[in-house]
Specification:
heterodimer, A: 359 residues, alpha/beta, Rossmann fold, 2 domains, 6-stranded parallel sheet, 6-stranded mixed sheet, 11 helices, 12 strands, 16% strand, elongated, B: 354 residues, mainly alpha, ABC transporter involved in vitamin B12 uptake, BtuC, 69% helix, 0% strand
Chain lengths: 359, 354
């Protein structure tokens, strides 16, 4: 990046040869920039990484729905997590399948960028906007602006008063299923490490509260205080380090399970437990990313269960809801719940297939 | 902002130099002595860059519906405000520290300083402090971080690259301590004004970008103070020989940069209704903007007006991408291409002409 070899910036003219060489280089670079811009301009939205193995299963064919001639704005906070990417893809694919044009925008986990994208999206006046996840307090004023601009707003996994319909998993059921499985696996007794870093995210709060609800009736199960905090980014490494420390602090037999509200911390926790050969500790999480389902299938791994959501189907359902609304059906309920599935050591193999994670 | 004529030397500190206000250097003139018009690579590069800017705008105006609408231009200005204010701070440091990236002035802490200042502002408002207290302490936070940079660079003599990298980490650490890596919601009468619209229904942040830009252009490009900043960065020995307190000017540049970061923080809290995690990610964009700004200046030096043009250029480019339905995934790549372009052409021109 060195701008100048010499510290001073005195410029002198040196005659025509410099001009020629400079102009060639300059035209070349400018040409590349502008040429590339023009070339890209003729292209449609490039899709998010489409290298995922197979499209999601169990998509009911929705007859008579169409988005022909309609433009749907899709704004997501990020696609770095399996769930986010699949839900995003589900939306893009479904808009195209129904004959519409998606304007798909990935905020790259940057609130500012997502806000800018929503702002510009409003000025593009699409027929509907679908918003997926993000920080609700940041988003809320901008979601209200979407509504004020007269654009129907739908959300994915984001409960907002501005949204006509929110497509999500039933997180109450997810939280309960996971908690019951955990309590059963550890025979209703023992200490549990809990990652509770994202209580501010409503779906995580619901799952956590459900855990507490279930554990009320298992008095011999104790949550270790202080609770752990999962972070983004470096979630796996961070969870690994935290669980490793706790394994040192609490010797064999003093920790029965590790719980987290999603499955990325579960990966770090599982690695730490397996690495320390503490096979009495079991790990639990939510989402069902392929790597986690594979861990659960591995009989030697400490990963015991994950509640797998169907993000692709969630994304698809959100688009179908928007299409229904745009076709005049204004009887949509405020929430559409897509079933989630409990994956354990017993059914992991079968679930892998059902979730489209293996042929 | 963009006088393209080659007669008037708008941004050049050489005029005050001639007036003898400092009298410390040969004017950093880019003109030929003797015959012929004052044409050189730098001028051509600048004219070419401006033309590139105009071409990109023209292209998007043709293909993107609503690109030149008042609403869209306001959007771009509003979206560029935070990055713009940060890049002004970075530009000032580059001016006073010299633009050699390894040994020259750079403030890597600027984006994390914004994160820390925003956290301070949000937590103060959350704990019920009035705007005036919260605002003052936020500006003081930015100033303190700037001062820390100044001490590390000037008093201790650490390379700016390393010194500000360390301070960047300190800021990131304190931000985490305050926010616990969560978003702190904040609201206040001032924030409501900043987040809302000003006269003619145009966003307040858009006005602020232009106002702050114009004030800094006036201070840095048209006053003896600004001239001396350029002298300190470009002609250190000459500045020393002329009796300038070089260290004081360099320290001031870091403090100004710190204040810019905290002003950016206030704008950011207004835009996002609170503090937000991940401010550090803005650093690369700030560096890109300040470096690209160089090609918009007559003598290939960092200028506030160049940085303002550069932030608008990037803003319009990203906006145009979205309006023409090009994936946002291209943005990072294009930013990289722009930085390569800016650095490659400026170093080539300088090397050839040295």
């Amino acid at each position: 990046m060195a701008l100048a070899k010499k510290p001073d910036l005195v410029l002198r003219t040196n005659g025509a040869s410099i001009w020629e060489k400079l102009s060639v280089l300059y035209r070349l670079l400018l040409g590349i920039t502008i040429g590339a811009t023009i070339y890209w301009g003729t292209r449609q939205v490039s899709r998010a990484d489409t290298s995922e193995p197979t499209p999601a299963p169990t998509i009911p064919a929705e007859e008579g729905l169409s988005l022909k001639g309609k433009t749907i704005g899709i704004t997501v906070i990020g696609t770095d997590h399996y769930w986010d990417l699949r839900a995003y893809q589900g939306q893009i694919d479904e808009v195209k399948r129904l004959g519409g044009t998606p304007i798909a925008l990935d905020g790259g986990r940057d609130d500012k960028r997502q806000i800018s994208q929503i702002q510009t999206l409003i000025s593009q006046k699409p027929d509907a906007i679908i918003e997926q996840l993000g920080t609700l307090s940041v988003l809320e004023p901008w979601l209200e602006k979407v509504v004020k601009a007269g654009i129907p707003l739908f959300t994915v996994d984001t409960a907002s008063p501005a949204s006509i319909n929110d497509t999500t998993s039933d997180n109450f059921f997810i939280g309960e299923q996971l908690a019951v499985q955990l309590a059963n696996d550890i025979h209703g007794e023992g200490n549990v490490l809990v990652f509770n870093g994202f209580y501010g995210v409503p779906v995580c709060a619901i799952r956590y509260d459900e855990l507490k609800e279930v554990l009320k009736f298992y008095p011999k199960i104790k949550i270790i205080e202080p609770e752990l905090r999962d972070v983004i980014p470096n979630t796996v490494q961070n969870a690994y380090a935290q669980v490793n420390e706790m394994l040192t602090k609490y010797p064999k037999g003093q920790i029965a399970a590790v719980w987290s509200a999603w499955d990325v911390p579960q990966v770090g926790a599982t690695e730490a437990v397996d690495g320390a050969q503490r096979n009495e500790v079991k790990t639990y999480g939510v989402d069902g990313s392929p790597d986690v389902v594979a861990l659960i299938k591995d009989q030697k791994s400490s990963a015991a269960a994950v509640v797998a959501q169907q993000p692709y189907l969630i994304g698809k359902t959100a688009v179908d809801n928007a299409a229904r609304y745009l076709n005049g059906d204004h009887s949509l309920p405020p929430y559409s719940f897509v079933p989630a599935l409990l994956v354990t050591k017993k059914n992991a193999d079968e679930m892998q297939k059902f979730l489209g994670q293996r042929p | 902002m963009t006088d393209e004529g080659n007669g008037q030397n708008r941004e050049s500190p050489k005029e005050p130099a001639r007036e003898g206000s400092v009298g410390l250097m040969e004017p950093p003139v880019a003109t030929t002595k003797g015959d012929g018009p004052p044409i050189n690579g730098a001028l051509l590069l600048r004219a070419g860059s401006l033309m590139g800017f105009v071409l990109v705008i023209a292209y998007f105006a043709l293909v993107a519906p609503g690109f030149l609408s008042v609403g869209n231009i306001t959007n771009v200005l509003e979206q560029s405000a935070i990055l713009g204010v940060l890049s002004f701070g970075m530009t000032i440091v580059m001016i006073a520290g010299g633009s050699n990236v390894i040994t020259g002035g750079i403030d890597l802490s600027i984006a994390n300083n914004l994160g820390l200042s925003a956290a301070v502002y949000a937590i103060l408002l959350k704990t019920g402090q009035p705007d005036i207290v919260a605002l003052s302490l936020t500006l003081l936070t930015g100033l303190a971080v700037g001062l820390l940079n100044a001490i590390a660079v000037v008093s201790i003599g650490i390379l700016p690259l390393i010194a500000t990298l360390t301070v960047m980490n300190i800021c990131a650490g304190f931000e985490l301590v305050i926010t616990q890596n969560t978003v702190l919601q904040a609201s206040s009468p001032l924030l409501a004004v900043l987040a809302g619209d000003g006269p003619f229904g145009i966003a307040t942040l858009a006005y602020l970008l232009l106002i702050i830009g114009l004030i800094l252009i006036a201070v840095i490009e048209y006053t003896p103070f600004g001239l001396r900043l350029y002298a300190v960065g470009g002609f250190r020995e000459a500045a020393l020989a002329a009796g300038l307190s070089v260290n004081r000017y360099i320290a001031t540049s870091y403090i100004l940069s710190g204040i810019c970061a905290s002003i950016g923080a206030v704008l950011s809290v207004a835009l996002l209704s609170g503090s937000s995690t991940g401010s550090g990610d803005m650093l690369l964009s700030v560096v890109v903007t300040a470096l690209l700004g160089v090609v918009f200046s007559r003598r290939l030096v960092p200028t506030i007006s160049g940085s303002l043009l550069s932030v608008l250029f990037i803003g319009f480019l990203i906006n145009g991408f979205q309006l023409t339905n090009i994936s946002s995934y291209w943005v990072n790549g294009v930013e990289g291409l722009l930085i390569l372009f800016a650095v490659a052409t400026t170093s080539l021109v300088r090397r050839r002409e040295a």
